[in-house]
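Need C-alpha cells for this chain, all 475 residues.
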Amino acid sequence: MGAGAAGLYAALVAASQGARVALVSRSPLAETASYWAQGGIAAALAGDDSPELHAEDTLGAGRRAARSSSVRVLCEESPARVRDLERLGVRFDADRGGNLALGLEGGHSRRRVVHAGGSATGRRITRELSALVAVEERIEVLEPATAAALWERDGRCIGLVARRGGEFEPVTARGTLLATGGMAALWERTTNPPGATGAGHVLAHAAGAELADLEFVQFHPTALAVSGERDGFLITEAVRGEGALLLDSHGERFVDELAPRDQVAMAIQAKLERSDQSAVRLDMRAVDVERFPNIENALAEVGIDPRRDLVPVAPAAHYAMGGIASDLNSGASLPGLYAIGECACSGLHGANRLASNSLAECFVFGRRAALAAADEPEPPADPGALPEPAPAPVPPAATREALWRLAGLERSAEGLTELAGERHPLARHVARAALAREESRGAHQRSDHPEPDPTLDGNHFVLRGEQRPRLEPWD
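Here are the C-alpha cells for all 475 residues:
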C-alpha cells in the first residue's frame, strides 16, 4: 500500500524474487509525496567515509534514542542500495570525472548525500521506479485506490480491503506492506502534501498493531513563509550545505546553519518569538541556484529571486520519527504486516532524524521487508468476512490548528492534556505519547521539562489501542 519510493522499490524487489505483487496507490504513479522529496540519499561512499562514521552521526543526531541495531543496518546497507538504484536506471549527479557528487548536510561529518537532479531527487527516483513498475508483469497496480481496512484473521494480517471507484476490492496476501508515508500534514503549518495525514498509522492501529515514538516530530527549520499556496514549501538544507546563511531581522547570523535540524528550528523559533516577526531570512546569494531548479522555480512564482533577494523562512512540521513499531525486517507487531518508509518506526531516527537518512531508509528497509514478506505463509483459502472500514485519517481544520498550537515545537502538560481529548485518533495518540515523555529530547521539547532525562536513554513509548503508553528499551 503506497507508491512512493519505499513502496515502488519493495514491489520491484519482491517481483524480482518471483512474487506476484498488488500495488495499491491512492494517486497515479509518480505523483506521490516522494515525488516532491528534495533531500538525497545518505550513504558512506566517499574514500574518507565509512558506515561507522555514518552511524556515529546518526546516533548523535538521534539524541541517545536511536536504536543502534537499526542504525547499523541502514549505514552498512545504504551504499549497496544506491548501486542497486543505479542499475535500475537512476542517474545520480556526478562531477566532471564521472564520480558521484556527494553533498554535505546538517549533522553529517562527511560529504555523503547523493542527489539526482539537485533538489529533484525524489522526482527522478519515483519517475524511474514508476516506469519499471508499470511494465513489470508480476506487479498489478490498483490506482486510484485506497485501503479501507487491513484484513486480520487468527492473529495475522492476511491482506487488505481496497476501495476503488466506490467499490470494495479484497486483496489477500502472504505479506502486507504499508508504505503510506508520514503524518506531518496533521499540523497546520507543514512542508508535506495534504495527504500525509498518517493513513497507514490509522489502519495499523485499528488492526491492533503497535505504534511508537509518536512524540518525536521534526520541524524543518527552513520552510518558505509567504501567503498563498507556496507557504510551507521546503527549502532543502542542502542549500545551507552549499553556503546559504540564516539571518535575523538585523541581518546578523544567529545559528550554525549545519547543526542538526532540531537545534536550528528551535533557534529560529526563539528569534521569532523575541522579535515578533513571522520569518527569518535565508541568504542564498552565494549559492549556485541552478543546482536547485525546483526551488528557483517555486521562489519565482512568489516573486523572489534568490540571487538577489533574501528568502523568508520559518519552521514547519516536516517528518515524524514515530510510526508503526517495526523490527529490523520491517515487521510490525501484527504478524504478516510490514511497515516501511516514514510510516514505520524501527527506532532508526531516535529523537531527531539525520538529514537524508529517510530516503536511504526507504530502500534499505523496503528491500528487507519485501524479502521477509515473501517468506510468510500463504493466506487461508477461506479468509472469512471482510473487516469493517478503519476510521477516516483526514483531520478537520480545528485538529490541525490544535496540533500546531499544543504539540508544536514546544509543548507543555497543560496543552497536551487538552489535545489528548481530540477525537482524531492520531492527534490523541501524539498527545498521549508526548505527555508520557516528561523530558526535552531532540524533536520533543517540553517547556515544563526542559532537560533530557538520562533514565529514558534508549527507551521508547509504545502504544497499543487506548492503553497507557508503555516504555520499552530498544537495544
